[in-house]
Design a protein that fits this description.
Strand order of the largest sheet: 2-1-3-5-4
Helix content: 40-55%
Shape: globular
CATH superfamily: Sugar-phosphate isomerase, RpiB/LacA/LacB
Number of strands: 5
Oligomer: single chain
Largest sheet: 5 strands, parallel
Amino acid sequence: MKIAVGADHAGYALKERLLEKLKSEGHEVADFGTHSTESTDYPDYAAAVGRAVVKGDAAMGLLVCSSGVGMSIAANKIRGIRAALGVNTDEVSYTRRHNDANILAIGANYTDEPTAKALLDTFLTTAFEGGRHARRIDKLNKLEQEEQQ
């Protein structure tokens, strides 16, 4: 699977470890940066990853910043993105099954590496259930369209 990945300076170290994991599992990864701990602006990376997912250049996205909140807010500004903050595997499973989230945001300051890897595994292996949840996703899409007018 092709996965778009991005992080700001606060998420850089964890992003690098998650990149290693993804590559070792055979995933194709598009790394949108950052590539150091020098201070950067998280919306830039959220936008790049979000746009790659919407355009179909990647099937899923992963964003890492200090809390994960800023990245998820910024990514959700991109029409067609459903970014979700991952805190525990149960929550990540729900957001994939029920909300068809296409980007996972992780807070590096609050998530240790083993937990981040478990969140990512859950995100990538959990399928959207469709059914009544598809109706709700359709309503989210309609809200986006209405707000664009």
